[in-house]
Design a protein that fits this description.
Chain lengths: 391, 237
């Protein structure tokens, strides 16, 4: 059995004080969001991968609750409780327990109960500045705690989105590729599919019905689908209605009518996803990949370089930082810049800190629209281990 | 952990009632192993006639996996589905000794028949983005096989869904709107069809049947091992 009691309690507390002092000095208000959270927000928003790692339980009234698997969603909810308008600016910091199930035999750097010290900044309008600030503040805090050797790893979904926007393809393909970005295998399959489009015959739909469906005449299409179901005695039941199913079939028809994705564009996307480079050289590498295809993402690249400069201004040695296009995050809610701080002792599988931009999370928690949000958290037990050399 | 006594008796856990109990008793009887309750006919303890070093525990079918997982029973008769569902590390805790040829059932992914745009798991992933735009949430899947479902779908790249635990009448949840589709057990598919559902082409998670299963974590004293060998030899004969 894993020992779960907070070992080294005093050392962790002392470290937390040093870390929190830096956060507060940088303008973050210390808060203590609730440990017990409604499970629905985590599960509907983030999906079942997180559930597999979240302690979910039912209270005596039958409501589904969970022990928070991180403090970002709880801090979003706290901000929304305070402000009727969630886009109000707010900077928070916290030091508290988070809980994630770990299978038997997990390494000691992955305990099921751990303390996260972190910051979140909502409503910031200068994007690169708030992103760089988040990294600088976290690094300063870890330095104040005694960390001397570390490496910064960054990624940027904004670059990928910009490439998709600039490449010639229908909007729904962009959405699909964006969705598959985190899954290398599915991403490759999707690219392959889009380059070899044909009316998809795997469906439970005779080709004759598909040929009858015209994306320009959705009402007739719906009638045709209704007739098809009727003839077979199939009832439409459940959450997806006739129009939703028709729409889905129409997008299959539309895909078949659209010029397939050019292999050049597919190769380029695949090429971009594979970029791993020193942060400063990455921009030039990406520009090289895009040059032949006349894909212009200079605005996104400019943000990338401006952010790097701001990081350097904040005292980060960006000569040592690495860029990875396919930065594998375990939580899918990041929407732009992402980063991790890695130490040689703990290795890349157990970063001491990480974070990024997550502009859609507030809306997923119930806000009317997206709210700019950047944050990051330190895994405090790992930080202590890295500093004391006890890894 | 004081007074831990290593028993010389093998504990065999079998279903306590219904067809599963009858079929288990039948298979054992055919091998010349007569299961018999001891004392009160409604009791939960029994023996195999002529094998004094075997103790039979009549246990609710869903509990047998727990008995094997914790080592309270050395051998048990239970469905493969329940073992795989209730133990993430089943390979290290139990060993399947022998399929028994009854209790056949498939654990399957089933969606409404009206989803004519969905035939395989990959189609689900494809419509999930549009579904989320329309409904503001990911798919909800009703099942009692939470772990099997999660593992099966994740391995196929479908990770954006929420499982709703359902302990009964799962096949009715899509029509009721509490889930979008289900993972459930089926033998002929009749109940699914009657509820307007269809099994996805690659949606068979597991073809399960009753198995004789050994616990790897139970205390296996030499005499217990002898009893196991004898039971196995008779069943194989």
């Amino acid at each position: 059995m894993v020992a779960e009691t907070a070992k080294k309690f005093e050392a962790l507390e002392a470290q937390a004080q040093r870390v929190m002092a830096v956060f507060i000095k940088a303008g973050h208000e210390a808060v203590a969001p609730a440990i017990i959270q409604p499970a629905g927000i985590f599960l509907d928003v983030i999906g079942e991968t997180l559930r597999a790692r979240t302690y979910v339980f039912t209270d005596p009234e039958g409501d589904e609750l969970c022990l928070r698997p991180d403090l970002t969603v709880p801090t979003c909810r706290l901000h929304m409780e305070r402000h009727a308008d969630p886009s109000t600016k707010g900077k928070y910091c916290y030091n508290g327990a988070a809980f994630r199930f770990q299978p038997a035999g997990s390494p000691s750097a992955h305990p099921r109960e751990f303390r996260q010290a972190g910051i979140e900044a909502f409503g910031g309008t200068d994007r690169e500045k708030s992103e760089a600030q988040a990294v600088v503040t976290l690094v300063d805090a870890m330095k104040a705690a005694g960390l001397s050797t570390w490496k910064l790893k960054i990624g940027d979904l904004g670059l990928f989105r910009a490439i998709l926007e600039a490449a010639d393809m229908p909007a729904r393909w962009r959405r699909r590729l964006m969705h598959q970005f985190w899954r290398p295998q599915a991403f490759r399959t999707e690219l392959q599919r889009l380059t070899t489009l044909a009316v998809d015959v795997r469906r439970d739909v005779p080709k004759s019905l598909l040929l009858e469906l015209d994306p320009d005449r959705p009402v007739d299409a719906e009638k045709a689908v209704a007739r098809h179901l009727d003839e077979r005695g199939i009832e439409t039941l459940g959450t997806r209605g006739l129009s939703e199913i028709t729409e889905s079939l129409l997008s299959i028809v539309e895909d078949a009518r659209t010029q397939p994705l050019s292999t050049e564009t597919a190769n380029l996307l695949q090429c971009y996803v594979g970029v791993v480079a020193p942060a400063r050289a990455a921009g030039a590498r990406i520009r090289d990949i895009l040059r032949d295809q006349k894909i212009d993402i200079s605005a996104a690249l400019e943000s990338y370089h401006r952010r790097l400069q701001l990081l350097a201004d904040g005292g980060i040695d960006i000569g040592k930082a690495d860029f990875e296009a396919e930065f594998g995050r375990t939580l899918e809610y990041y929407t732009g810049f992402v980063f991790e701080i890695v130490t040689p002792g703990l290795g890349p599988q157990s970063p001491v800190a990480g974070g990024g931009r997550y502009d859609t999370l507030m809306r997923q928690c119930g806000a009317a629209s997206d709210v700019p949000a950047v944050g990051g958290a330190i895994h405090t037990e790992r930080l202590l281990a890295a500093i004391s050399g006890d890894v | 952990m004081a007074l831990q006594q290593v028993s010389d008796r093998l504990v065999l856990a079998v279903p306590s009632k219904g067809r599963l109990m009858e079929q288990t008793a039948g298979i054992f009887a055919k091998a010349g192993l007569e299961l018999r309750k001891v004392g009160n006919a409604r009791g939960y303890r029994g023996e195999i006639v002529g094998m004094p070093n075997v103790e039979v525990a009549f246990v609710s079918a869903s509990e047998i996996a727990h008995y094997l997982k914790s080592g309270r029973a050395h051998l048990g008769v239970t469905g493969e589905d329940l073992i795989r569902e209730q133990m993430s590390d089943w390979e290290t805790r139990v060993e399947f000794l022998k399929p028994l040829g009854f209790g056949n059932a498939d654990v399957v992914v089933a969606v409404p028949q009206s989803w004519i745009d969905v035939r395989v798991i990959a189609d689900l992933d494809e419509i999930s983005v549009a579904f989320r735009e329309q409904h503001g949430r990911w798919f909800r899947i009703a099942t009692k096989y939470m772990n099997l479902t999660r593992r099966f779908l994740s391995a196929r790249g479908l990770t954006d869904f929420r499982i709703i635990e359902s302990l009964g009448a799962t096949e009715g949840t899509p029509a009721a709107g509490t889930a979008d589709f289900i993972v459930d057990i089926t033998t002929t598919g009749e109940t699914l069809r009657a509820n307007g559902l269809k099994v996805l082409e690659d949606g068979i998670i597991l073809r399960s049947q009753a198995n004789l299963v050994a616990s790897r974590v139970a205390p296996w004293a030499p005499r217990v091992r002898e009893a196991e060998n004898e039971i196995l030899a008779r069943l194989e004969a």
